[in-house]
Design a protein that fits this description.
Helix content is 12%, strand content 33%. The chain has 219 residues and is mostly beta strands. It has an eight-stranded mixed β-sheet with strand order 4-7-10-13-16-19-21-22, with no helix packed on it. A seven-stranded parallel β-sheet has the order 1-3-6-9-12-15-18. Strands 2-5-8-11-14-17-20 form a seven-stranded parallel β-sheet, with no helix packed on it. Strand 21 and strand 22 form a beta hairpin. It is globular.
């Protein structure tokens, strides 16, 4: 092995060690932050905004890229963000931005792929396992603001099932449920329920066809 290669390996190992120390320090500073020791050391470059009383839990093997401000996690007091094992928050296209407001809960299932999208929970957003959400897509469980002085903000939980594929530039609004193994086409506006195994797209999104079992086939 050449000295240049040895030096590069040493440099990468040293950087990973520094990043691991930063993540340990983060958990010490924020008692509500629980990071499995196996999460990617690249998380040290993410933006963590966890208020006192907020909770963030990352399970084993959650990964992202080592990109400054590539992921922004905001958890308010009483809020809880859970990222289950093997999830990948991918940020080379655009940042992944997640807001969990006071008293809300947001769960990202195991082996999910979130690619440059935005999630916002004021009550509850739940994403099942092995689901993909594409660049610039947005998930909101609330109207975000009151319509006027006589119309308060409306908040309803959002549920996205297992093995769902949400393509790019999709907006998913409050109260929506998307069944397992469904596909949502690009630039769709989802304002109603989508049954399992559905192909839906449009503004508003309508079911246009059916989708087979998207679960991976065992060898």
């Amino acid at each position: 092995m050449s000295w240049r290669r040895r030096f590069l390996i040493w440099r990468l190992q040293a950087q990973a060690a520094v990043d691991r120390r930063r993540l340990r320090d983060l958990s010490v500073r924020h008692p509500g932050v629980e990071l499995d020791p196996s999460v990617s050391s690249a998380w040290a470059t993410a933006q963590f905004d966890v208020h006192p009383g907020g909770r963030l839990r990352m399970a084993a093997d959650v990964v992202t890229e080592r990109r400054v401000d590539g992921v922004r996690l905001h958890v308010h007091a009483g809020g809880e963000l859970v990222i289950e094992s093997g999830a990948w928050l991918r940020s080379e296209v655009s940042p992944v931005v997640i807001h969990v407001y006071e008293g809300a809960r947001l769960t990202i299932g195991s082996r999910c792929l979130l690619n440059g999208c935005q999630l916002s929970a004021k009550r509850e957003v739940r994403i099942g396992c092995s689901t993909m959400i594409g660049p610039n897509s947005r998930v909101f469980d609330a109207d975000q603001h009151p319509f006027d002085a006589d119309t308060p903000e409306r908040i309803e939980p959002v549920t996205i099932g297992d093995y769902v594929w949400v393509a790019s530039d999709v907006s998913i609004l409050r109260g929506v449920s998307i069944g397992d193994h469904s596909v949502i086409g690009a630039r769709s506006l989802v304002s109603g329920a989508v049954p399992p195994h559905s192909l839906a797209f449009g503004t508003p999104a309508r079911v246009r066809g059916s989708v087979g079992d998207r679960a991976p086939v065992s060898p």
